[in-house]
Design a protein that fits this description.
It is a single chain. This protein has about 550 residues and is of the alpha+beta class. It has a domain at about 125-250 and about 280-535: Beta Polymerase, domain 2 (2-Layer Sandwich), CATH 3.30.460. It has 15 helices and 12 strands. The protein has helices at about 1-15, 30-110, 135-150, 155-175, 195, 270-285, 295-315, 385-395, 405-420, 430-440, 450-470, 490-495, 500-505, 510-530, 540, and strands at about 130-135, 185, 190, 205-215, 220-225, 240-245, 320-325, 330-335, 340-350, 360, 380, 545. Strands 2, 3, 4, 5, 6, 7, 8, 9, 10 and 11 form a 10-stranded mixed beta sheet that branches. A two-stranded antiparallel sheet has the order 1-12. The longest helix is centred in the N-terminal third of the chain and has 80 residues, at about 30-110. The chain is elongated, with a radius of gyration of 48 Å.
Length: about 550
């Protein structure tokens, strides 16, 4: 019974569940909607996967960009470090360059003149001359007394005679010149070895310079190689002289610099004025169609003027006067009736501004010097300051100092050697320059008379060093240690040092000849000195010893 009741209840419940009024018709489509939902869910799932892939790609791109930025930062950092290292090396190079430049400035201001006296400075020297016999003090003293002093005793009397005659000749020259048109000649001055008391070889020749100036209203305006104007390297030591009216503007008229048309006329300068001005310039010894003083024209004018002056006073003297050298305007020779003669140079010069530096019309040049392309270039001579420096420094040296003796002995040896083997590129001026450098470099007490042997060796060593380096600097040009008492122009002290041995770089054959002559002189030194030395007891001759240069 209970089982039956249960069955009936189950049937009723089943009927109720399946009754159409209880569940609507559309509920029967549930299976179809489930498939759409599943399909949409699949599409959604696929969309999410695509979105996930896109996000992953974006994340990967972002990471790649970050890595690129990091790499770029590393490169920049490395380049910064490299640049820092490069800047450091650049700065270090600049420091080294500045040190070199400072050393070069010291070199110009006079440190280049120091010989140092150290063996290191002379290490390059003497390798080919070990064993060269060098005379000792006794032999040198005897040679100096017998050969040098015995032949230079008449120099003072000769200087006095030449100066007196030159003054008389110049006075006559002024009287024959036209004061309104010709150059104005001043008093002469003695320069060179005869007036510095170190000339040893005959014939003795007095060198006199004669300053001259243009007539009023003209004046000289000079330009030098170190005044900022463009001069070629082979014209260092030279300058030009422009003849101008005293009231003339340095800039000049614009018609000289501007090309005027055919229908335009300068109201200041007509064609006639231009022609007349050109003739005036030629009358003022200028180069053709220029305002620059011509050395050749000056030579012709001076020779004619001297000839006229001598014709006026020749009756007062019992000798003849003639020009001894055609290429030098004032190379004169006095010929006595006895057959004896006296030579002297009377050379016209132009003063540089208000100093004692002079432009010299014709300077005796060695075979090293090239011919000047233009006669408008004038050589500058510092002979007056050189004489004053020797006089000034001599006051600080011991009595009977040996500086002049050293120069005389060296000049004699070199001249004697050249007479045997022919001329070389060395001149007495080079030897004098060596002495001037050593006078400034060595203490005063080192020039005592008993140190003649040591100082002569120093001069030979210094000269050999200069020959080896092909560098011997002018004593005054570029020397910032010139004594202020001399009043030397500052423009030349600040100039680049002038290498007197520069021609040796260009003329190797002359350089080789010069070096060979110098070496031969060293080897023959003892023989040359002993030839003119009186007999010395054996106890003293043992002093001849070997020196290595």
């Amino acid at each position: 019974m209970p089982v039956g009741i249960f069955r009936v209840c189950l049937v009723v419940i089943t009927a109720l569940v399946n009754h159409p009024l209880l569940f609507p018709k559309e509920n029967g489509t549930v299976p179809e909607n489930a498939e759409e939902i599943i399909q949409k869910m699949k599409e959604r799932e696929q969309s999410l996967r695509l979105q996930q892939l896109r996000f992953e790609q974006e994340i990967a791109d972002q990471e790649a960009r970050e890595k690129t930025v990091e790499k770029a930062a590393e490169v920049v950092e490395e380049s910064t470090e490299e640049k820092f290292r490069w800047d450091m090396w650049t700065a270090l190079s600049m420091v080294v360059f500045l040190l070199i430049e400072l050393w070069r400035q010291d070199f110009q201001e006079g440190n280049w003149q120091d010989t140092g006296g150290e063996e290191d400075d002379m290490a390059v020297l003497g390798k080919a001359f070990k064993g060269v016999a060098f005379p000792d003090k006794a032999v040198l003293a005897s040679f100096y007394e017998k050969r040098i002093l015995a032949t230079t005793g008449d120099m003072a009397r000769m200087r006095e005679m030449v100066e007196g005659f030159a003054d008389d000749l110049l006075e006559a020259l002024r009287s024959v010149c036209n004061r309104d048109a010709d150059m104005e000649v001043e008093d002469c001055m003695g320069v060179g070895s005869m007036y510095e008391n170190w000339r040893v070889r005959k014939p003795f020749v007095c060198d006199l310079i004669v300053p001259f100036a243009p007539p009023e209203p003209y004046c000289f305006r000079s330009q030098t190689w170190c005044s900022g104007d463009s001069f070629p390297p082979d014209k260092q030591g030279y300058g030009t002289i422009k003849v101008c009216r005293a009231d003339e503007d340095m800039a000049g008229c614009i018609c000289d610099k501007t090309k005027l048309g055919e229908d335009m006329l300068c109201l200041l300068h007509s064609q006639a004025n231009t022609t007349r001005r050109s003739n005036e310039m030629e009358d003022l010894l200028c180069f053709k169609n220029t305002q620059y003083l011509d050395a050749d024209q000056v030579m012709k004018w001076f020779q004619i003027a001297v000839t006229k002056a001598w014709n006026r006073i020749s009756h007062k003297y019992e000798f003849d006067l003639s020009f001894s050298l055609l290429d030098l305007p004032g190379a004169l020779k006095i010929k006595f009736r006895s057959g004896k003669s006296i030579a002297f140079n009377l050379t016209p010069v132009v003063q540089y501004e208000n100093s004692d530096v002079y432009f010299i019309s014709h300077f005796p040049r060695s075979g090293l010097a090239a011919d000047l392309p233009s006669s408008t270039h004038w050589f500058l001579t510092f002979a007056v300051y050189e004489r004053r420096f020797i006089q000034l420094i001599s006051k600080t040296l011991p009595a009977n100092a040996c500086h002049v003796s050293c120069l005389q002995i060296l000049s004699f040896l070199h001249g004697k050697q050249c007479s045997l083997t022919g001329p070389s590129g060395l001149t007495n001026y080079h030897l004098k320059t060596v002495m001037l450098h050593l006078l400034q470099a060595c203490p005063s007490q080192d020039w005592a008379p008993e140190k003649l042997e040591a100082r002569l060796q120093d001069m030979l060593k210094f000269l050999e060093k200069c020959l080896h380096e092909k560098k011997l600097y002018h004593f005054f040009i570029g020397n910032g240690r010139v004594p202020a008492e001399l009043g030397f122009p500052i423009i030349f002290q600040r100039a680049e040092p002038l290498n007197l041995f520069r021609p040796f770089v260009l003329h190797r054959d002359v350089y080789r000849k010069t070096v060979d002559t110098f070496h031969e002189m060293l080897r023959n030194m003892s023989a040359l000195i002993n030839e003119y030395t009186v007999h010395i007891p054996h106890a003293h001759t043992n002093g001849i010893h070997k020196e290595s240069f």
